[in-house]
Structures are given as C-alpha cells and as structure tokens.
Design brief:
The structure holds two protein chains of two kinds.
Chain A lengths: L1 E2 L16 E11 L6 E11 L4 E5 L6 H9 L6 E7 L2 E4 L11 H11 L4 H14 L15 H14 L4 E5 L7 H16 L4 E6 L2 H7 L2 E5 L6 E6 L11 H20 L3
Parallel strand pairs in A: 1-3, 4-8, 4-9, 6-7, 7-8
Antiparallel strand pairs in A: 2-3, 2-5, 9-10
Helix pairs in contact in A: 2-3, 2-4, 3-4, 6-7
Chain B lengths: L13 H11 L5 H35 L9 H11 L3 H34 L1 H16 L6 H8 L3 H25 L3 H9 L4 H38 L8 H10 L3 H33 L6
Helix pairs in contact in B: 3-11, 4-5, 4-7, 4-9, 4-10, 5-7, 6-7, 7-9, 9-10, 9-11, 10-11
Chain lengths: ~260, ~290
Amino acid sequence: MTVTGQRSAGVPVAEGATGSVRLAAVSKVFGRGGSAVRALDQISLEVPPGEFTCLIGASGCGKSTLLSLVAGLEQPTSGEVTVSGRVALMFQEPALFPWLTAAGNIDLALRARGLGRAERRQRTTELLDVVRLGGFGGKRPHELSGGMRQRVALARALAQDADVLLMDEPFGALDAMTRDLLHDELDRVCAGRELTIVFVTHNVREAVRLGDRVVVLSSRPGRIIDEFAVPIEHPRRIDSAPVAELAGRITDRLREEMNDGPQ
Amino acid sequence: MALNEGRGSVPAYAEKLAWLEAQETETPADQRGRRLANRAWAALWPKALAIAIVLAVWQLIHISGWKKLIFPGPAATLSDLWGQLHTRLLWHAISITSERAIFGFALALVIGAVVGAVVSRIAPLRSAVGSLITGLQTMPSIAWFPFAIILFGISTTTILFVIVLGAAPSIANGLIAGVDYTPPLLLRAGKMMGLRRLSLYRYLILPASLPAFVAGLKQGWAFAWRSLVAGELLVVIANQPSLGVLLSTDQDQADMQGATSIIIVILILGIIVDMLFGVADRAIRSRWGLTGTV
C-alpha cells in the first residue's frame, strides 16, 4: 500500500521547509534463514517538507527500525530510502553525555558541525533559552530532571541544524504532566523553524495532539495499514474533544488490526 | 491555557514549569560543606580504628613473648622509625624511590594508553594482542628481573623496564575495557551528531572510557609499586640509597626494627598514592552522577 503525504486544509505546515523523506517499498529483515525476522514489509511513505508526521503502532511494529533506516544508522534489506536535507535523531532516553554539562552537550553538537568558538557560545545560549533552560547550562545531566534532560536533548537535536528531525518516542519515559508541557514546548519550538518531523510513538493521543498526519503501522511485520489526517486547529490540547474523538477512531483501527493479525 | 493562542505562541505554563524545576533541581550549595566534613570523618574513622587494632595486636604478640629477642614491639619500632625520619638517608632513599615510581609509572601510563588506544581500535590487533596483554598482567614482575638484568645490567633502566611491564598491561586493559563498554546509545547519538573517526574518539569514546581508565591506572599503580620495591631489593646501585636498598641492608644486619620501619614507610607511601587515585575516581563518579549520594 502506498501512502502519499496529502496536506489537509487547515493544517499548518512550516513554510520554507526543505527536508523531506521518501521510502519506496522498504523492507528490513534481521538475521538469516530460519531465524530471520521481517521487521518492516514493503513500507512506502512520503513525508513532504514541513510536515509533522506521526507513526503509530504497537510495540514490535518496527517503528524504531524505520527511524534508524531514515537516519542512515541501518541499511534496508530491499527498497529505497531517500532523505533530502540534514537529519537529527532524538531517542526515548536523552542520551546526553554524562561527562559534559547541559551547555557542553549542545556545544559538542555545534562543534561537530565545525562552528567556531564564539558562534558556538552564542548558539548554545540561544538554544538553552529556546528550551527554557537558560539558567541550567552549567548543570550536568544527572542534576536535571527527566523532562529537563529531554529538553536538553531537543536543544542538542536543534543544534545539529537539521532539516528533518526524527523523534523516537522522545517523551515515552516521562510522566503525563511533564509530557504535556513538552508537547506545548515542541509546538513552540517548531513554529519558528522550517522543520520536517517524523515522530514515532505508541501513544495515540500524543500522535493526534502533535501530528499533521498519523500513519498507522501493523505489527510483525511492520506494514502501513492506514493513515489519518489531523484537521484540528492549533493550539491543541491532549484532553480536548476533537483530539479524543480522532484518537478513539485510530485506536479502534489499531484494535481491529491486532484482532485480525497474528497475536 | 488561553484557547486563542496559536501554535508557537508563549503559553501560560511558565510558572508551572518554574515550579516543577524548583522541585526537581539539586540541593543548595550550603549543604555541601557539612557533607564534606561528614565524608572526611566517615573516611577517617575506620582507618584510625584499623591502625589502632593492628598496633594492639602487635603489642599483644610482643607481650606474649613470642620470638622476644628478634621481634620488636610497636614502641621500639616506631621510635626507630622516628629516629630514621631524622636522618638524611631515609629521606634520600624515599626521594630516589619516589622518583623511580613517578618516572616508571608515567612511562607505563604513556605506553599503556597508546597500546590500549591502538589495540581497542583495530580489531585484528585486538585478537592478536588482547590475551597477550592479560597474560602479561598476570605475570609476576619479579620473573622479569633475570631477563632485565642481563639486558640492561644493574641499572635504573632495569627497574623502570620491570615497572613498565608490570603496570602498562593493566593501564592498557583499563582503556580497552572503557572503550568496549561505551554505551551503544551514546555512540548512536554521537554518530547522528556527525562525530566520525578521530572526533568520535576524542569527544565521545575517550571521555566515556575515563572511569574504566582510572580503575586501570589504580591497578597499574599497585603493580608498579610492587615491581619497584622488588626491583630495588635485587638491583642495588652504588650511591643510590633506595627504600629497597635500606631494606636489604637491614636484612644483612639482622636489624628487625629498621626493616619493619622501612616496611611501614613503603606501606604508607603505597596507601597515600592509592588514596589519590581514590579521590580521582570519586571526583569522576560524582561528576557523572554515579554515586549513591547526590
């Protein structure tokens, strides 16, 4: 099944974004022979510039594998992955370097891009402000809360000046209140930037809260079974009626799939 | 939150956020001083108690009369040590031994770090040399002395050679272990950031290896110190009074008090250096948030 990115009326798309992702009949098999596991099966997906696409599915549907393929950390067994623009990846764990301060972590991402000292210092301060950690640059990761660490990770991802931001359940390990705050935070951060985002989650409401489009994956092997446009005006709230209503429909679709498919 | 806010406007949760952060950030700095004093006391009293117990047992053996003629009590030994501390000879010996220890260990550090860095990076070399390094580590250093003495004669080089052979394998192994246990997630994050080859090594793998490397240094020091004292007993160089030389002179003269005094000096020097490594280790652990008490 081929899914193309259609923009629904009323859904804001970041103007001027250039990064895009295209997967054409991508499959990924781990292992060989009898023990081979087909993680992804014939995935075709197009994420146009500036779109916020959420991928949703039960655990084991190969969501993270898909992001690794887009990030170039792994190669597909068959099919083609085309990414235009620079890619940054955010993980479920903050994956900050414990020997560096919050500012140091961001600074290293800038250094990897080859920026000079003065520019790095200025950009680090800006990025810490963007994620509202202005006074916390000197703190080490273990001195920060889970939500603050994930915001440093977001700043570090932004520091990579990527066109495509891949997010692998970045708020999955956080409590509901912190996650709610970070959703608002992400909206705000994205607004001023020309970012194309692929966001993986198993939380249907989160997907509807954030995405312009929600793509539903089946499990074992991961296949695209459906997609939903999210024509809900911003700002959205995760507990608002339209979000709950659409999330309910997507959940029904997921249930249907899980009942039909292999257990 | 106001409903008319567009995507990207500043929402009204800033206070909520500030409140959350106030709940979650570290304890204030004024508690640090008290914690430091508590920690110093916690570190000191077991050591003081251990010394007291050793002295008491020693005194008891002395009182029991076992080998009374040749086995001195703590009072006689400590006064002998006190006396020796007022001679130039002991301090000269301490300085010569320390100099060799520092120079030998520095040499072992450079060689161990270079070998560790190269071996951990190159897979075929790893399978070729990896188990050899561990083999060298388990080799009793005293076994190298006949080889070294024939090769370099009775000289400081001989002693340094054996120190390096004793300490460098531990240091190399520490670095290799650190590189091996660099968390894969951090490696993925580093690669996504665009760190490659040398920059990946310099900014990610080496700092990530630091705790294991310091553990290797600590173990390497223990081997170096042992090799050094053994070497000084065997390799006696004229006009270079080392702790080992003093010890072997005491043996020749059956000076039990003198020998015991030197043993105490060697023990204390070893403990002091070990404590320095302990400080470094703890500093790293607290920087990384690996300690139980935050």
